[in-house]
Amino acid sequence: MFYSIISAALLLLLPVSPIWAGEKEASFKLTGPVTTLACKMCHTWRKPVLKQRDLKAPHNKIKLNHGAGQLWCFSCHKENNYANLQGDKSAVVDFKNPQKLCRTCHFRQVKSWRGGAHGKRTGSWQGERTSWRCTACHNPHSPQIAPFKPSPPPRRPGTVVNIDKSESKNGG
Amino acid sequence: MVDNRSSRRGFLQGTVALTALLAGGCSSSKEQPKTAFEDSVATFFQDNYQVMTKDEIKEVLARVERRVKREYGVDIKCENTPPVADVAFGYALNLSKCKGTRRCVEACVSENNCGRNHSLENIRVLAMPHGTMDLNKSDHYYDHEQVPNSNDWYLPIQCHQCDEPACVQACPVEATWKEKDGIVVIDYDWCIGCRYCSVACPYWARHFNWSKPNLQPDEINPKTHYLGNRPREAGVMEKCTFCIQKTRKGELPACQEACPTGARVFGNLLDPQSEIRYILENKNVFRLKEEQGTQPNFWYFYDV
Questions:
Q1: DSSP annotation of B218
Q2: Per the CB < 8 Å rule, is A153 touching B265?
Q3: What is the nearest CA distance from A67 to chain B, expressed in angstroms?
């Protein structure tokens, strides 16, 4: 009796495809975005592929478009230290201070940022204010800022505003 | 000259007081709420902001608050925060970073209670074709699907708060002047609406309220300044005041806060540690129409 229940349960489970079947070439499927899982959850027992390649699951959410193909994951992340950032020629950098890594290439921008000529500031013009760090505006994997939809233009002379605020040509 | 004017003013005020006394004598009792008629009479005989005493200004501010309450049903706070000592405001704008999103214009309109019906916008973002600095070729009505458009670069223009303001010299009634912190302001109640200043300004920075601003009660920003963003009447000029109601309290102007690309830098020119001073000392800066000799406090720069 007991064995029959077990076998029935197994039979019921068998037609169900394994949870990793959705992605080819993947050994498992993530239930959340990559950022919610610590790298070391897998990479303690699974050696990372150091070779540059097209990113598949579970890293498929990362669209790497930085440095025109010259940069790879391990340009900024190091195999033995996932909790921090580290470049090829930089010291170990906290994730909260990405500018210390970015400046190895973008030294002009970081210099401008420190002086106040690059990046956004909020708060007060005197006293305390917030300097937004590199990754607050730039996605480090694809740092180019996406185009914007502009706010509506001013009304041209010769157009009148109707009561419902929509515009129409004056005199048709 | 000054004595003559003040004696004339005194005479007129005496006449008004006498009339009010004859009409019923209710103006002397302070507990009674002021009527719209009393307020409009008082506004008619109100003096220039620069020569008013502190008590007079206090009355005027209360009157502004009452008028807005009456017209829009909104409780606002109208203040006259004075200039901060040892401060001269300056503005710098990074042309390499400006992408023409017009977020600054949007923020300016809502912060400064600008009229929604006549598109009175204190900031004008010019789309300029690549390879030219000719402002005649610019278009500020651009309506691209996406910005930056590949054919254009963008040049936002607002009041440059000049040290030698042409608009101030043009005003026949001294309704506009330069404050100690460098902001050129207008006393809207003293302005006669002749629009000479708007012709004199080389930056198209002054705008005329042809009609009453079409403000909805929920659109009104209740934190106002007498010389800044209090709701205007029809028939007066208005301009950018570097958000006087915010910046004199240490905050940043609305356009700077709204800019998504961080192209705008605001600060104190007299503070050697300020960001604006860093830009003036380290970047390639230029001022628009410098040959006009108005000494603007607004610099454009670009990344090299």
A1: G
A2: no
A3: 19
